[in-house]
Structure formats: C-alpha cells, structure tokens
Amino acid sequence: xxxxxxxxxxxxxxxxxxxxxxxxxxxxxxxxxxxxxxxxxxxxxxxxxxxxxxxxxxxxxxxxxxxxxxxxxxxxxxxxxxxxxxxxxxxxxxxxxxxxxxxxxxxxxxxxxxxxxxxxxxxxxxxxxxxxxxxxxxxxxxxxxxxxxxxxxxxxxxxxxxxxxxxxxxxxxxxxxxxxxxxxxxxxxxxxxxxxxxxxxxxxxxxxxxxxxxxxxxxxxxxxxxxxxxxxxxxxxxxxxxxxxxxxxxxxxxxxxxxxxxxxxxxxxxxxxxxxxxxxxxxxxxxxxxxxxxxxxxxxxxxxxxxxxxxxxxxxxxxxxxxxxxxxxxxxxxxxxxxxxxxxxxxxxxxxxxxxxxxxxxxxxxxxxxxxxxxxxxxxxxxxxxxxxxxxxxxxxxxxxxxxxxxxxxxxxxxxxxxxxxxxxxxxxxxxxxxxxxxxxxxxxxxxxxxxxxx
Length: 455
Hints:
four-stranded mixed beta sheet; 15 helices; 17 strands
C-alpha cells in the first residue's frame, strides 16, 4: 500500500482544522485488495518448557474461565514501560501493547497518579448524576476533534453499537416519514467492528458471524477501497450509515486511499447518509496524528474510540456532530458503568499526554524509523510480501502463516501479533517505545523471519 506508506512520511498531511461543509469532488479511484479478514489464531508448537508456576495458572484458567481465547502459553505478572515480565521473571519487549491499548506503556507515572487520586475521591455513581471527570474528558475530546458531543461506553464494540443506534435514530429523526427512514448499513472487506451482535453484523469475516446468526440484518459488504461499488449502493437508497476504518488493524493493516474516503464523504453528503469512522484501533495518536482521519483531511459524522483512551482501563467513546446529537433523546441509550469518574480521570491523563504536537511528531518519526529498519534488514527475505503502515501501526505481510514466527519471537523475548488471514505480523507497540527498543524488536523479528525463510 504505497499510499499508506506515503501518509506516514508526507509532511503535508498534518492535523487540519475542523471540516468545512462543502467538499471538493475527486475522481473516484478504487483500490482493490485481497479479502483477508481476521486473524485465525492457531498456537505454534512450543519448544521452551513451561514452568510449573505457569502450568498451575494455565490449568486454573482452563478450569474456571470460559474457553473463548487461544492464549499464548505464558503467564504475565507485571509490566514497566514497554517491558512485561512473566511469573518466572522472564522479560519481554511488548510490541503488542495489549492489542494497541497501552499507548503509554505499563505503569505510566502520570496515569498512575491520576488513577490513585481519583480512586481516593470518587469511583462510581452511575449516569444518574453529573460528575466532573466525565464532563472534563468530553470537553477535551470535543476541543481536540471535529465533534460537538460525546457519548461514553465501556469498549469498542459498545461504542460501535451506540453508533449503529444513533445512525438509525438520526435517520428517523430527520426523515419526513420515520417509518420509511433508512435502516441499512455499508461495511467493507477486512473490517472488524466488534463481537456484540450489531457490531458483529458489521464485521466481514463470516466465521465470526455464522455461529450466532441471525445477526442484525441489513448490512452490505463491499470491497475495501471500491468507491464505485459504494456509491452505487448508497444511490440505491435505504442506507443509514457507512462504517469504515481509515486504517484497518485486525484486517491486515490496510489504509484507505484519499480518493476512497473523500468519495464516501461526498456520496454520504449527497444522499443524507452518515459516515462513521471506526478508530477504535487506529485512533488517538497511533498513526502519528491524533485521529487517523486527520491525515486525509476528511471528517466523519460519527467516530468511535476505545482501546488506548484510558491507558488500559475499559472505555469506549462515540464522538458526534451536533446534527446527530440533536436526534438523541434521554433514554435512547445508556450505560451503568460508562464514563465513570475513575475511568474518565485516568483517560484525561492519557489524552493530555498524547495530544501534544511533539509527542505526535515523535510517533511519526519512530514509525518511519521502524519501517526503514524493517526494509533494510528484511531485504532479500523471500517470505516478506509487503511492509506497510502509518506511525506505529505497521504490518509485515508474509507468504505464509505468521503463527510460528509469533511463537519464535515470544520465546526470544518479543511479543507481536498477527492480523489479516494470519499471514500479517502486526506491530502496535506502546507509543513511548524508544528507538533502541525498536532496534531490538526488529532484530529479533528479522532473525526469526530469516530462520523461517530457510525452512
């Protein structure tokens, strides 16, 4: 994806001002990609013996926890900065960051201070009452984005569920005949929007939907980047909203083209359809921009956030324009835990630290450095098809499954993830990772890749 790579290095794509109402018409351009969807998590064979302490915890996990996760065969006990340690004291460089969650690493001092401060003051009262941290966090999110209003949730999938409801309510609120208002949605190949039934219906991999069908009806899946097909579907009518990730994470680290997102924005405006950007994984500094869509100078009607916002604590957020917020009334949606004072005060410390021009510029430069290291050291590796990404969300696409590589890296002290069909190595380290740590991580990854290449 040459376009995605250019966004990570082109200085002209800096954080722009809030959107204008009139949009320039661009020539449609569809970027075709393979339909690689979500990772198939198959654990590799283990060569390093598992300690007795780890075995005991794993056995308890098996006995008491529902088996929805194919966990890696290590038991993590503590983390400091960009390092985590298992129960045997072995150190790992964390280039997974809790699946792009721990952007400030582990045990950030400002985050910890905020957490302790609020825990001793007020932790939870529900949304029946006003609380100061929730209002302060919402205010800062609005001031730093396109949005006018915020709704808080507890996770990314909850944020997307709210966006689904808000989209349908907006259409009924603005339609002359509410009974005939649009209720359908567009989503794309390689998409991942969550595991609850509404968000799952927007997620493209059939394997994840099939066991729970019927999921929410009315979702059409199109090729990611195929603007012509998307415009045709929108022109048919009946579409309430288009859900799209500016940079896909689970799907394989694919970035949308400028033409694609601009074309979607134009088509949505012309036909009264809402444009929803899912930035659960790619948002809040991950790309080197505060919001991933800022690199494109294109703004949504709704944006969903979650993973990094509270520094590892559960949170989700839906940012909306005024026109969407006006359609939502009391009791249209809600949550007992969402936006609690403890979580919001911790999130404020995260947002304050990331929303700094120097911090974001540093993420960009480290992203460029990471990709340059990978390109230099992996030159000649026949297993590597492509290296792509923006900022510190980087993918290494292989011509084979990446599970064995992930296992080998873990044994050598580096934690990485898979994406796509399981053939993409996903690197989403803490945004505070140092160049020295990147060098170590790349060295281990490259050693394991060349060993894989020789087999």
